[in-house]
Automatic annotation (TrEMBL):
It holds the Pfam family Methyltransf_12. GO terms for biological process: methylation. Keywords: Methyltransferase, Transferase. Residues 170-272 form the Methyltransferase type domain. This is Methyltransferase type 12. The keyword Methyltransferase applies. The keyword RNA-binding does not apply. The lineage of its organism: Bacteria, Bacillati, Actinomycetota, Actinomycetes, Kitasatosporales. InterPro entries: Methyltransf_12, SAM-dependent_MTases_sf. GO terms for molecular function: methyltransferase activity.
């Protein structure tokens, strides 16, 4: 029997499509299936929203087509995929929402698994446990991207596009996904992606070339702290953005403040800093539970004390950003600080 036939037969016998997840059981099942899809390497292909065949998915995952047929049938039964013609499938309309929701489970229980599994060791010997139990960088990156797809990237993207920048700098850019998206929308603009990870920089260069913006994106392998002494990479930028990286250097005190001041000096007149980060233990009912976990994991396991909102704003004011303001995110505890020069 052909693999596609297996999918069609199993789909015909499946129950009616499931509505948007509303229970813990729905969320857990969807998150597990999407993590499997990610491990198979097929999520980027699915996220394009174009019809795909089982054969294409099997080739992307480098697995037997018959095995992929069973997995595709399961995704269809779970309402993550739907038939799109003869032997073709596409993601359900709410696939992006499901990716976003699954990101919270993926980040909490998988990306931070070393902390969840070993709390006693960290309470007894924080430094020793931190050296012994490390997070998987890939899991952190993937889960953060899934959360960010709707949790904080849209707000930053909107603010940056509204500034109509000719040059954008992203600090701690990782694989430069945000910058690549922005350059695709701003064909006259250029960008610089700064990150201390050699692997992330290589991936940023590769992804930029694949997206057709490689000639407009400069990739710089440097830590953010280096800007305190040499702000050359951000010189002349209309927008300097940083997403969830400034809290890693806030405890460095003078270095943090010098980086902010040098960034302000490097901005063109009228430019803005747009810093996406978090505040501790957000009290709002919508935010408080995930914010409590996020705050505790950072303070108790990563030695990162998140500054309160007013402290963030005060640090901007001390650096010369007199009109800094704060915009809440969909991400619980997340804030976008917009500081015009």
């Amino acid at each position: 029997m052909e693999p596609e036939m297996i999918v069609e037969l199993e789909w015909e016998s499946a129950m009616s499509p499931i509505s948007t997840p509303e229970t813990a059981a729905d969320l857990a099942a969807v998150a597990a299936l999407l993590e499997m899809a990610d491990r198979l390497g097929i999520v980027p292909l699915l996220e394009r929203g174009e019809p795909v065949t089982t054969a294409q998915l099997a080739a992307a995952a480098d697995v037997p087509e018959e095995g992929m047929a069973g997995f595709v049938a399961t995704l269809v039964a779970a309402a993550l995929l739907e038939p799109a013609g003869v032997k073709e499938f596409r993601v359900a309309d709410d696939f992006a929402d499901r990716i976003h929701a699954s990101g919270y489970l993926y980040w909490s229980l998988r990306a931070n698994q070393p902390y969840v599994e070993h709390p006693a060791e960290f309470l007894r010997d924080p430094a020793g446990a931190a050296a012994l139990y490390r997070r998987d960088g890939r899991e952190v990156a993937v889960s953060s991207r899934w959360i960010g797809s709707q949790g904080f990237y849209p707000a930053a993207t909107e603010a940056i596009l509204a500034a109509r920048p000719r040059r954008i700098a992203d600090l701690g850019a990782g694989a430069a996904g945000l910058l690549i998206d922005l350059l695709g929308r701003l064909p006259e603009s250029t960008g610089v992606a700064l990150d201390m990870s050699a692997g992330a920089c290589r991936e940023a260069s590769r992804a930029a070339r694949a997206a057709g913006v490689g000639d407009r994106l400069e990739v710089v392998e440097r830590p953010i702290q280096s800007l305190a002494d040499d702000p050359a990479p951000v010189a002349g930028a209309d927008v300097i953005h940083a997403g969830f990286v400034f809290h890693d250097i806030v405890r460095e005190g003078d270095v943090f403040d010098r980086v902010l001041r040098r960034c302000r000096e490097a901005l063109r007149p009228g430019g803005i800093m747009a810093i996406t980060d978090a505040v501790p233990y957000a009290p709002d009912g919508r935010e408080r539970r995930f914010s409590a976990l996020f705050t505790y994991l950072h303070a108790g396991f990563m030695d990162v004390e998140l500054p309160p909102e007013e402290e963030w704003l005060e640090r901007f004011r001390q650096a010369g950003f007199d009109q800094a303001r704060c915009v809440p995110h969909r991400f619980p505890g997340g804030r976008l600080f917009i500081a015009p020069k």
